[in-house]
Each structure stands twice: as C-alpha cells, then as structure tokens.
Amino acid sequence: xxxxxxxxxxxxxxxxxxxxxxxxxxxxxxxxxxxxxxxxxxxxxxxxxxxxxxxxxxxxxxxxxxxxxxxxxxxxxxxxxxxxxxxxxxxxxxxxxxxxxxxxxxxxxxxxxxxxxxxxxxxxxxxxxxxxxxxxxxxxxxxxxxxxxxxxxxxxxxxxxxxxxxxxxxxxxxxxxxxxxxxxx
Length: 185
Description:
By secondary structure, the chain is an alpha+beta fold. It has a single domain, classed as Aminopeptidase, CATH 3.40.630.30. 30% of the residues lie in helices and 28% in strands. It is built from six helices and seven strands; from the N terminus they run βααααβββαβαββ. It has helices at residues 13-24, 29-32, 37-41, 45-54, 117-131, 148-157; strands at 4-7, 63-69, 75-84, 100-108, 138-144, 160-166, 176-182. A seven-stranded mixed beta sheet has the order 1-2-3-4-5-7-6, sandwiched between helices. Helix 1 crosses helix 4 (45-54). The termini are far apart. This is GNAT family N-acetyltransferase. Its EC number is 2.3.-.-. Residues 3-182 form the N-acetyltransferase domain. Keywords: Acyltransferase, Transferase. Pfam families: Acetyltransf_1.
C-alpha cells in the first residue's frame, strides 16, 4: 500500500475525531484504549479542536499525533506520542521517573493491517522522541496482557517488557504490562 506518514495539522480536528471514533469501535478497543466510543462521540467540537492543536506541529510540543495517509487523503492509521517529565502532572500510571515519551492511541484500520503501516508509524514516533530538543531517556507504552497481537508487534519492533505493571484507571480489569525502548548510548 502506498501511504505517507506525517504529523497532523491543527485544522484537521474532524479527521482526528473520525479516526479516534473508528479506533474505539474496533473489537479490541476495550483492551487498547482508556476511552469508549460512547464517551468520545459525545465530546464537543472544541475538545477535538484542542486535541488536534495540541498534537500538531504548532502545539506546545508535549504531544504529537502521526497519521498514515493514503494517496486519496484518507487516514489509515495513527499513533500519538506524549512527552512525560518527572515534574509533569501524571497522565497514566505513576509519575515519570525519567524524561520519556509515552506511545498511546495506536490504531491501524483493519483493511491495511499487515502492510507495514504500523512499522512506519512507530518509526516516526520513536524518531520524533529521540529528536526532542530536551532529550528523553526512554520511550514507553503499556499493553494489556490479553492484547497478544499488539504485544507481539511491540517486541518485534524492539520494545522490551520491564516487568512493571500498572492498574488500568477507572476499569475493573487486569493490569497492563509496561514495555520500553531505552535510548542507545
């Protein structure tokens, strides 16, 4: 499949909303996301506008959302990267122990899975993490123990399970395993 990987633009909030809602309708969304379709679809346009602005090139630099864009302009996959510093407010899990980025919001449409889209999105996200002006020591993500397909990809891409586990906030479900990639010395 022919696609390009790029950072979203602030004015692309409608596409940001559409791909997020598609992700939340995926059969494994309950394992992969801390959000539900029912909650997300109710959010006002201003929420999606702020989300797109914050994750765009013109945002505050604390997040980036990358998309895989097909030649027809449709978005076939996405990944978001959050910058986490020990002094930051905790978004998920425990406070950051080191300067790091956190991969969230990973989604590839079913019809393009297995075409390399996910590899390209991860390369872009990890490369962005290592290129930050204020360097990070590691890139991390969490994966639910029942999400075997995702865990297998993360290992293949070079992420290593740390053994740390974190409770899923607001859910009565199993713990999630932390995976990380450390900056090469």
